[in-house]
Amino acid sequence: MEIQNCLAKVQELATADASPNASPDTHRNLLQAIRALQLAAETPNETTSRLDFQIVHNIAIRVAVEKRFLHEIVAEGPVSASRLAEKTDSDELFVARILRMLCAIGFCDEVEGGYAPNQVTRFKTLPGSIAAEKHHFDIDFPIGGQLVKYMRGSGIDQFGESGPTIFKYAHGTHSIFGLIERDTEHKEAFDTYMTARRLVDAPQWFDIFPAEEKLASVPKEGQEVLLVDIGGGAGHELAKFHARFPHLSGRLILQDLPLTLDRFGPLPGIEKMEHDFFLPQPIKGARVYYLRSVLHDWSDKKSEEILSHIVNAMTQDSLLIIDDFVLPDSGADLRGVEMDILMWLHTAGLERTASQWRALLTRAGLDVVHIWDAKRGVESVLECRLRAI
């Protein structure tokens, strides 16, 4: 009966998802229902074996990206194993073995005489997707290889406050930020991946939060800065905000470290400013201070330090907007849980529940005015002000 119930739910959501008015949340619910159906249909052995062998899938994908097998399939497909071997300077038997795996997991299609591209093949050859593969595989696999030694040695210190982080144990630096500072290839992959993530078709913070309503009023004296994007990377969030609300008056300022800002060209209507968010905030009294996917990189102790500099720059009229995951106390979506574990591995940080957010922000001297929920699987928006005196 469980399988029949799961199947009925999948069919219901598949119908809803096919509607022209379907929301992203409907699609996420469909995928969750499909996963539930698979778990209901699998035996325990099938479930655990599938996860045990996931590593083999990832290795085959990384090989294909590095050897440019998928690029050649997109460029010439259908293409034979012998032709792929010739084009990529590879052994034909090896090509055939890797491509058997990629076809089995849907990364390309097996056709008579060779291999043909599909939507996944084409997507995986995009710069952002290639960067994601390099970023996760090349950084996460060394961590996995050292995990048990780390646990059996010094033990797990989630935030690196009394011992080494797992990232330091595997890569020699406290977090991913130290690695990308010293390794240009990792830095390029990180920036390209983060840029691609911010360009996906997902709700923007100003679609979730009523920005027009909140910011349409005439600025008060001394509020010449409309929005400061702190740690904003390439500035895509700020550029999208500017494109949506060109009529809103005030300066738009993008802050990040020189290592990041120097990689990208000028942005129309946006001022670039070098700033380390562990130092005092130089822009005082802005209408909005904005943090996207920043605090999840840091422990509560470090996050309070970051927030203290923003609080000291805010006035009673300033808003702090935090664009980040807000995990439910139970029944968390897989995406949010994945991000939480990833933050532990990469940055000694964490994704937070609503109660964890409120506790952190209260200690920093802020009130949470409202949590604008973006539904399951994507970031929510926390609207904050200085605590009322």
Automatic annotation (TrEMBL):
InterPro entries given in the database record: COMT-like, COMT_C, SAM-dependent_MTases_sf, WH-like_DNA-bd_sf, WH_DNA-bd_sf
Coiled-coil residue spans: none
One example of a Gene Ontology biological process annotation: methylation
UniProt cross-references to SUPFAM superfamilies, sorted A to Z: S-adenosyl-L-methionine-dependent methyltransferases, Winged helix' DNA-binding domain
Keyword Methyltransferase found: yes
Entry annotation: catalytic residues: H296
Keyword Cell cycle: no
Domain named O-methyltransferase C-terminal: residues: 162-366
Full protein name: O-methyltransferase C-terminal domain-containing protein
Protein species of origin: Penicilliopsis zonata CBS 506.65
